[in-house]
Structures are given as structure tokens and as C-alpha cells.
Write a structure and sequence with these properties.
With 225 residues, the protein is mainly alpha-helical. Helix content is 83%, strand content 0%. Helix 1 packs antiparallel against helix 2, helix 3 packs antiparallel against helix 4 and helix 5 packs antiparallel against helix 6.
């Protein structure tokens, strides 16, 4: 999943800050509405007896009533807008906590491809491929795998998800180190081959947890291979 987490950081802070300001403005509008209502109530108690003053009094009452309704309408609109922006900000934060950053997604995609390639090297070896050539291929693959596995989980992600990713990247890094240490002699040992195929499968099982937890489109990963 491609996603710019720094943009989500700014979005969360911006929406939440603006939402809080709007809610404060809502309180101000309500206070002004109450003030206008209080003034209107006082005005209605002082109804003038003289006809010429009564016209000005009616206009003043009408203006205060209109002002009071305007403040309350503003309070309702601003309150709803504040809730919308605040809710959007919290959604952005939730999305940030539970989704992969673009670098993390790219690293997982790379590891997915390299694990399959490493597994295929051992399959080829069992089928009679040259150990000398396989050693060279594994060294190249291990270098790329180590580079991909050096990725750090995004700090804005939830602690549980960071732990899950750290475990996955560490497994890949350990595997890369072990693959790089292989020699022609070690690859001629059938038992050793089976051990490494089992290690690769173990990393793939951890990888499957990542795919399921983050709802990664595995079909898209297969197409990139």
C-alpha cells in the first residue's frame, strides 16, 4: 500500500487543530447567542408606552432576535464542521497506526520476491544445478535481501504492528546472513539444503502473517515477480 505517512502526520495535526478551533468558535457563538437572548429578554420587559418609541423598540427586538438566531445557526454549522474535521483527523491517525508506509511496503515486496528466488535456487540445486553457480546466486540474493530487511518500521505505526514488522525483517536479515555464508561444500550436503529450505519456509510463514494483518494484495506481489 503506497502511502505518504508524513503527509498523514500533517493531515492529522492540521485537521485536529482546525477542528478544536471550530469547537471553540462554537462555544463563542453559543455564548454570543445567549447574550443576545438575555438582552432580548430584558428588552421585552421594558416595552415603551409611547407609540414613536415603540417602533424603535420593535426594531431593536427584531434585530436582537435575528442576531440570537444567527449566532445559534452559526454554532450548529461550526460544531458539525468541527466534528467532521476532528473525526477525519482521528481517522487519518487510525489509518496511520494500522497501515504500512510506502518504504515498508516496498521492503516487504522486495523480500517477498527474494525469498521466492532463494527457495527456487535450492529447488534447482536439488534438481541438479551447479553448486558453484548456486553459491554465486545466493550471495547476490542475500545481499539484496539484507538491504531490504534493513528497513525500519514506521515510527507512527502502532507498537504491535512495529513488533510484527521488526520480527519479519529480523528473520529475513538472519536468513540473508546465513545464505551468504554458504559454500560449494555446504551446498553438496542434502541435509543442509533441506534445513535452509525449512528456514525459508519459516520466514514465509511470518510473511503470510504480515500479508494477512495488513491486507496486502498478494496477487499484486505475484505480478511484480
Amino acid at each position: 500500500m503506497n502511502l505518504n505517512m508524513s503527509m498523514l502526520d500533517m493531515t492529522f495535526v492540521g485537521l485536529l487543530s482546525f477542528g478544536v478551533l471550530l469547537l471553540l468558535f462554537t462555544v463563542l457563538s453559543v455564548v454570543l447567542g445567549l447574550k443576545s437572548g438575555s438582552q432580548l429578554k430584558q428588552m421585552t420587559r421594558r416595552r415603551p408606552k409611547m407609540k414613536n418609541k415603540r417602533k424603535r423598540w420593535k426594531r431593536a427586538c427584531h434585530a436582537l432576535n435575528k442576531q440570537r438566531k444567527s449566532h445559534y445557526r452559526t454554532a450548529i454549522v461550526v460544531f458539525l464542521l468541527g466534528l467532521l474535521l476532528g473525526g477525519s483527523g482521528f481517522y487519518a491517525r487510525h489509518y496511520q497506526l494500522t497501515n504500512l508506509s510506502s518504504p515498508n511496503a516496498a521492503a516487504i515486496s522486495k523480500c517477498y520476491y527474494l525469498l521466492d528466488e532463494a527457495q527456487q535456487q535450492f529447488e534447482n540445486l536439488k534438481g541438479g544445478a551447479s553448486p558453484e553457480k548456486t553459491v554465486k546466486n545466493l550471495q547476490e540474493l542475500s545481499s539484496q535481501l539484507a538491504s531490504a530487511a534493513s528497513e525500519t518500521p514506521y515510527g507512527g505505526m502502532s507498537a504491535d504492528y512495529r513488533l510484527l514488522l521488526n520480527k519479519y525483517f529480523k528473520k529475513n536479515l538472519d536468513l540473508a546472513i546465513n545464505l551468504n555464508a554458504q559454500t560449494v561444500q555446504s551446498l553438496q550436503d542434502t541435509e543442509n539444503i533441506e534445513i535452509y529450505m525449512s528456514d525459508i519456509q519459516s520466514v514465509k510463514e511470518q510473511q503470510q502473517k504480515i500479508i494477512e494483518e495488513f491486507e496486502v494484495n498478494e496477487q499484486a506481489l505475484l505480478q511484480k515477480k
